[in-house]
Amino acid sequence: MPASSSTVQVPPGGARAFVVKKGNFFRVIDVQGGQVADLVAFKLDDMSERLDQSRTRINNWKYRISVGDPVYSNMNNWMMTILEDKVGIHDLTFPGCSSFAYEKILKVGKKNGCIENLAEALNKEGNNLKTFEIPAPFSLFMDVEYDLRSNVPIIKPAASKAGDFVGMRAEMDCLVAVSSCADDVTDCNHGKCKPLEIKLLE
Ligand SMILES: [Zn+2]
To answer: Were 102 and a residue from 22, 34, 93, 111 both cysteine, which residue would form a disulfide, CB within 3.0 to 4.6 Å?
Structure first.
């Protein structure tokens, strides 16, 4: 049994940041189902080291990672390892939704996205990060299909069911942030943002 546990509630379309020390475990739970969780991580004592989407993809030589696979930093160090995965469908290619994407790509006007929300959550923990310093996230439960013939990525509704989760162990002291994806425009979150729950076990 773990020595202690705590819970972080992530509101629909919002983000929260929390510290996970090396060797500790946390679980990201999709409480209602069908909700993408965008996750970023920074090395706690050196914020220049951070999760790296493309290194994670290529160092694992996989488009989709799952149980046993490490998440890499921009310095090719192991930041965390996936120990549990109820879904197996996650994205490592999208940059996270943002005010740019809503305004310029989806053309629905100005609206804050996961990148702005993650920056705000991380800055509440005493940082001063600009949105361009937020790495492209590891998007839990995000289901993207790559149609190479038409050369178009297709965002499908998140495959997670109520109560599904991914559990990860930190391999270095990390400041982690998770957003309940703010996208209520595409099918990504089935058209509605929903809450997430983080369980931290020490
Ligand atoms: Zn998003």
So the answer is: 111
Question: Per the structure, how many domains does the chain have?
Answer: 1
Domain of residue 114, residue span: 5-201
Alpha-carbon separation of residue 36 from 4, 97, 125, 162 (angstroms): 27, 11, 23, 12
Q: What is the pLDDT of residues 178-194, one digit of tens each?
A: 999 999 999 999 999 99
The pTM (predicted TM-score) of the whole model is 0.96
Distance 59 CA to ligand 1 centre (A): 24
- The neighbourhood of ligand 1, an ion, using CB within 5 A, equals 97, 114, 181, 183
Distance 3 CA to ligand 1 centre (A): 33
Strand, coil or helix: 41: strand
